[in-house]
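This part of the workshop introduces the protein records we will be handling. A record pairs a protein's sequence with a compact description of its fold. Comparing a sequence with its tokens is the quickest way to learn the format. The record below serves as our worked example for the rest of this section:
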Amino acid sequence: MSLNIANLIIQIPVLLFALTIHEYAHGRAALWQGDTTAQRMGRLTLNPLPHIDIIGAIFLLLFHFGWAKPVPVNPGNFKNVKQGIIIMALMGPLANIFTAFIAGSCIRFLPIPWEVCQLILLYSLYINLGLGLFNLLPLPPLDGSHILENMLSPSSAEKYRTIGRYGPFILLGIMILDSYAHTGILSSILTGPIHLLAHFFAGI
């Protein structure tokens, strides 16, 4: 039990940072393209408190996966709306993958004498890879759905939005099945890419 508590003490701050850097990257990408909404609302910050979502925190406790409060964005302020949405949506997962790369590089190249530091880097590697790749799945409301929708033709995008209305319910169902029925749907999709990138970044 003490080991589990000790792991949680490390995992929770790492996960909060991963969620925060993800949302910050969305807001920063929007600002680069002319939208100041996140900045004006105090959400362009690396402080995790403004990004915490209560329901996402509950899901974190129940299903071991949660989310942060989405950064407010007004795509109407982008010079090129479709391109802007793609860049903005992509930046969140890329920020997590880059953070995983930094953690992996530290594991690979730096002598880490303390076990707690090793655990922090290891959790940072895997949590950021998991969060980044998970959000690239093309299922609403994940970032991948916004990327795909804005790459499609107008008619295809309309059909995708119609189907996408059921996306959150499908995602919730998958998470419940994975947590309680041990179906392993998400792990079958994500485990391979996560381990491949972890090996590439950290050599493990």
